[in-house]
């Protein structure tokens, strides 16, 4: 099998194992472009995990710079010997995706290993848009629908990003990282020390309620848009937000004790319903 084919298949397997919701949503994309969505999502996974795989911010920045250079070289048709880099070369050669958007994704991820918290909700929402929202915008271009999803992607991306932040609280706290807005923690008297120890108490439940209500507001805004069926797979993962949010906003939910995971068949049914109705 050609190198490009092996690289694209490797990306598909990586996404299936590590970003299953996007993998399931991509099943509704045309077969001809689905491998390029896998390449995008595999790239997103690689840069998102940088902060989790190193302990020093300088090392994280070195890895991000490696990926910036890998994107540039892939765009020139000279990919580095890495499955995701080789898949990106195929993506750039066969779709309208702009390499500059991939660089912007890398830059947005610099916040992941910063010791600083998000100052407020506006900063957290901007991060969600620059990460989850930008992945959706690139996905739309891979699907050949240009900038048609750009306004929708902001609302959908923020909803998906905030939901992800809420789900990742225990995982991130175990690595001494808090993604809750600093002003919200101050307002609720939510102790950083207790959070990092895995016990946010009643104040954490209030913080989850605030973030969850905000995510639902953006989800409602996203659902108000009419979505072109051809572009739907790019934003379809957002259809799962309500499922996750409903559990996290349930009375008695404790993020350090309770899982937010659902059986794959249930997620597949929700995505299928969204695809059939062309809505999230």
What's the topology here?
Elements: H1 3-18, H2 20-26, H3 34-48, H4 50-53, H5 57-75, H6 83-94, H7 99-108, H8 121-142, H9 150-167, H10 169-173, H11 182-188, H12 192-196, H13 201-223, H14 232-235, H15 241-248, H16 264-277
Helix pairs in contact: 1-2, 1-3, 1-6, 3-6, 3-8, 5-6, 5-7, 7-8, 8-9, 9-13, 9-15, 13-15
How would you characterize the overall build of this protein?
The chain is an all-alpha fold and 280 residues long. It has two domains: 1-114, no CATH class; 116-263, Farnesyl Diphosphate Synthase, CATH 1.10.600. 68% of the residues lie in helices and 0% in strands. Helix 5 packs antiparallel against helix 7 (99-108) and helix 9 (150-167) packs antiparallel against helix 13. The chain is globular, with a radius of gyration of 18 Å.
Overall mean pLDDT: 94
Order of helices and strands: HHHHHHHHHHHHHHHH
The gyration radius over C-alpha positions equals: 18 Å
**Helix content estimate:** 55-70%
Strand content: under 5%
Terminal Cα span: 37 Å
**Major β-sheet, in short?**
none
Provide the CATH top-level class of the largest domain.
Mainly Alpha
The oligomeric status of these chains comes to single chain
CATH superfamily placement of the largest domain: Farnesyl Diphosphate Synthase
Which segments are poorly predicted (pLDDT under 50) over 5 or more consecutive residues?
A: none
Number of domains: 2
CATH fold-level name of the largest domain: Farnesyl Diphosphate Synthase
Overall SS class: mainly alpha
Number of strands: 0
Net shape = globular
- From the 3D coordinates, which CATH architecture of the largest domain would you assign? Orthogonal Bundle
């Amino acid at each position: 099998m050609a190198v490009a084919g092996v690289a694209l298949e490797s990306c598909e397997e990586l996404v299936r194992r590590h970003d299953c919701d996007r993998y399931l949503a991509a099943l509704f994309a045309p077969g001809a472009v689905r491998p390029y969505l896998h390449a995008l999502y595999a790239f997103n996974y690689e840069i998102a995990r940088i902060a989790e795989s190193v302990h020093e911010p300088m090392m994280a920045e070195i890895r991000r710079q490696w990926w910036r250079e890998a994107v540039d070289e892939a765009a020139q048709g000279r990919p580095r010997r890495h499955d995701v880099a080789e898949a990106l070369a195929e993506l750039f050669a066969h779709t309208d995706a702009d390499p500059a958007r991939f660089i912007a994704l890398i830059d947005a991820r610099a916040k992941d290993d910063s010791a600083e918290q998000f100052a407020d909700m506006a900063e957290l929402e901007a991060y969600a848009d620059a990460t989850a929202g930008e992945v959706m915008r690139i996905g739309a271009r891979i699907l050949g629908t240009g900038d048609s999803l750009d306004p929708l992607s902001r609302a959908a991306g923020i909803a998906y990003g905030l939901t992800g932040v809420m789900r990742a609280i225990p995982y991130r706290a175990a690595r001494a990282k808090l993604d809750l807005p600093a002003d919200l923690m101050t307002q609720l008297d939510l102790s950083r020390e207790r959070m990092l120890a895995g016990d946010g108490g009643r104040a954490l439940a209030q913080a989850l309620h605030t973030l969850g209500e905000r995510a639902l507001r953006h989800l409602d805004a996203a659902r108000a848009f009419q979505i072109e069926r051809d572009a739907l797979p790019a934003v379809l993962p957002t259809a799962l937000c309500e499922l996750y949010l409903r559990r996290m906003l349930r009375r008695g939910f404790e993020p350090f004790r309770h899982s937010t995971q659902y059986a794959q068949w249930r997620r597949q049914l929700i995505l299928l319903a969204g695809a059939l109705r062309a809505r999230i």
